[in-house]
Amino acid sequence: MNLMTMMGVKTSSLLAVFVLLFFACGCERSTVDERAVVDQAGLLSAQATQRIEGLAHSMLEHHGVQLQVVTLKQTPVDIDAAALRWMEEHHVGQLAGGARGVVLMVDPVSEQVRVEIGYDLEGVFSDVVVARIEHDQMAPFFAANRVGDGIEASLELLVAEQPENEVVPIHGMAGRYSGGGGAVTAVPINKPLSPEFSGPMSESVRSRFVPQPTPLAALECYRQILEEHVKDAELTLYTPATREFFASWLVTDAQQNNERRDLERSLAQAEVFEQGPLAVVRFSLDQRQWSPYFFERCEDGWQLDFSTMSRVVGFNHRNQWFFRTLKHPFMFAFSDWSFDGNGFAHNNR
Fold first, then answer.
1. H helices then E strands: how many in the chain?
2. In whole angstroms, what is the distance from residue 215 CA to residue 281 CA?
3. What is the pLDDT of residue 190?
4. Distances, alpha carbon 157 to alpha carbons 59, 161, 254, 311, in Å
5. Across the strands, what pairs with 39?
6. What is the rounded radius of gyration, in angstroms, for the C-alpha atoms of the chain?
């Protein structure tokens, strides 16, 4: 074998080794854990897991965020480090095209939750935003032993931050998916709520939230309830059916803050429709996040009918409202609108 042949053999061998290493590295890098839920602790029901998986799919498809919910069987030495390590090892965010991942890690033993945020999402999911959602939304649900519901409700608030609008890609730093952005919060599970989440109020407080002379006045009274984080289900501003409905409904500060924000934005565009003892306050279809409010008139004035609203009004993955059914007594207020087969309203004007 001459020198040129030997050099050719060596070159070919080296090239083959290089190609094998290249593809091996590429395969390792592209190995992404596509599971949305990794329930090591067996904390979630099959139904809760299915709903969270649906939310994760929607977040990836419509908001460009890859989510992974992880419950731990054993307590790590440092949950911050554990969440960061999990995101890096499982490449959470790669399915979204970069460092656009969110890891929600729950340790039920030490009763902590950590939300790890990918580099490309730190501009929209700041540490302050994440900590607020954990404390105001997740903690009350966990305390009521509704872990799955708490995760779902918190994910909905993350979506409300509109991560799809964070369009400046960083694609991580030095090939990493996260730099430790996010927050950790204590979340006692199945334990009494602290006073800040209490429900029933004193009679002096209840006397402020009573039936009002007009539907708009009743809505303004409800805005004050949201502003003051009142969670008493027995307020007479609500219809009797609504009070019964709220008795088993968990309301959090985060939910109230979100609704108050939307209500304050929408009140200037409110339209009022009355027919006998019923009334509707509706808003422009340009803002489909602003759902209508239903009212009933009693001897003392107008009350809010959340019981009927909960049965009739639904929301899609973008928080846009629709009617689950058109067979309800408040349709008189929508005679100038048409509704498609999915219950979404369209303006005929």
1. 11, 13
2. 7
3. 83
4. 12, 7, 8, 22
5. 71
6. 26
Angle between helices 215-227 and 253-266 (to 10 degrees): 140
Per-residue pLDDT at 167 exceeds 70: no
Q: How far apart are CA 233 and CA 247, in angstroms?
A: 6
Q: Supply the angle between the helices 147-160 and 253-266 in degrees, to the nearest 10.
A: 30
Q: How far is it, in rounded angstroms, from Cα 252 to Cα 258?
A: 10
pLDDT for the residue numbered 308 = 97
Give the H or E element holding residue 33.
none
Residue predicted with more confidence, 164 or 343: 343
Beta strands in the chain (DSSP E): 37-39, 66-71, 101-107, 112-117, 181-186, 271-275, 278-282, 293-298, 301-304, 313-315, 321-323, 337-339, 345-347
Q: How far apart are the first and last CA of the chain?
A: 88
Mean pLDDT, the chain, rounded, equals 84
Distance, in Å, from the CA atom of 276 to the CA atom of 125, rounded to the nearest integer, reads 47
Give Cα 123 distance to the centre of its chain: 18
pLDDT value at residue 29: 44
Instruction: List Cα–Cα distances, 65 to 87, 119, 232, in angstroms.
Output: 13, 12, 36
Which residues in 46-84 are b (16+ Cβ under 10 Å) and which e? Answer: eebbebbeebbebbbeebbbbbbbbbbeeebeebbebbb
Structure tokens at 257: 């803050």
pLDDT category at 129 given cuts 50, 70, 90 is confident
Do 280 and 294 meet the contact criterion of CB atoms below 8 Å apart?
yes
Q: What are phi and psi of 2, to 5 degrees?
A: -80, 175
Q: What is the pTM of this model?
A: 0.69
Residues 6+ apart with CB under 8 A from 187: 106, 111, 112, 113, 134, 138, 139, 142, 143, 150
Q: What is the pLDDT of residues 220-279, one digit of tens each?
A: 999 999 999 898 889 999 999 999 998 878 888 888 988 999 999 999 899 999 999 999
For 115, phi then psi, to 5°, come to -110, 115
Q: Which of 58, 36, 60 is nearest to 48 (CA)?
A: 36
Give the CB-side neighbour count of residue 234, counting CA atoms within 13 A.
8
